[in-house]
Design brief:
Layout (H helix, E strand, L loop, with lengths): L9 E3 L3 E5 L5 H11 L6 H9 L3 E7 L2 E11 L2 E9 L8 H11 L6 E7 L3 H9 L3 E10 L8 E9 L2
Parallel strand pairs: 5-6
Antiparallel strand pairs: 1-2, 2-3, 3-4, 4-5, 6-8, 7-8
Length: 161
């Protein structure tokens, strides 16, 4: 089963709930993935990720998916693979709440890693607020946009141990 069964539910203001996700959430996650990312993952790739042990956190309200966070853990390192919030719920704190939930429930993890677009100042600021530090760059990491330009990624990490 995907996700950590010991994760608790977290109630947020505004009737939002954060919980461990499962394959039952994949249709909604896939649709949000398609809306949020230029280079989205296929449904099968998301399914395979969960089946191979990736963890999924979902944020929902009234049965509607507001956002999700997908991560994988290898030994004592955790990598945030994706975090997405539906457009109608942007700037309401869901990304921060899901990130804090992940950090607070990460047992046996010494570092959390992620990549973020150089141009995504809002995300970089959020991660800095959470204690992540910039640790490097990946040149031309993101696929070309409609103009044919690639974008660099900023590497960030949060040391927990």
């Amino acid at each position: 089963m995907a996700g950590k069964s010991w994760w608790r539910h977290l109630k947020l203001t505004g009737h939002f709930t954060i919980r461990a996700g499962s394959v039952n959430d994949l249709t909604a996650v896939y649709e949000l993935n398609r809306q949020a990312f230029d280079s989205c993952w296929s449904y099968q790739a998301l399914y395979s990720a969960l089946e191979s042990g990736y963890d999924l956190i979902v944020c929902e309200t009234g049965g509607e998916l507001a956002g999700y966070l997908l991560s994988m853990t290898i030994l004592d390192e955790m990598q945030i693979m994706q975090i997405a919030v539906a457009k109608q719920f942007l700037r309401l704190g869901q990304a921060e709440a899901m990130s804090r939930f992940l950090i607070d429930t990460s047992s046996g993890v010494s570092v959390i890693l992620l990549e973020v677009r150089v141009s995504n100042r809002a995300a970089r600021n959020l991660y800095a607020k959470l204690g992540f530090e910039e640790s490097g760059y990946r040149k031309n990491y993101y696929a070309p946009d409609v103009t044919g330009m690639c974008e660099d990624a900023v590497l960030m990490d949060l040391k927990l141990a």
